[in-house]
Specification:
mainly alpha, 0% strand, elongated
Length: 85
Amino acid sequence: MKDTTPEAEKLWRALWAAESPERRLLCALRMFDTAKAIVLSSFPPDLTERERKKRLLARFYPDLDPLLMEQIVKQLPGSDSPHPT
C-alpha cells in the first residue's frame, strides 16, 4: 500500500537526504528501539531472558533458516530463569 503522493515523497526524500549521516543513523536506531519495545511488550511476562531473545529474533527475522536460528539461539547470552518484570 502506498498512500504518499509522488510530490510528497520527493519532498520527504530531499529533506531526509539533507540530514547528516549521524542524524539519519540516530533516527534509525531510535526507530529500531521503538519497534523492539513494541514487540517485547507483546510477549508474555514470564518468559526467560533467552526465550524473549529467541522470540525477538524470530519476529524480526521470520525468514531465517530454522537451523541457523537454533545455532544463533544456542549462542545467545542470557539466563533461562524468568525475566524480571
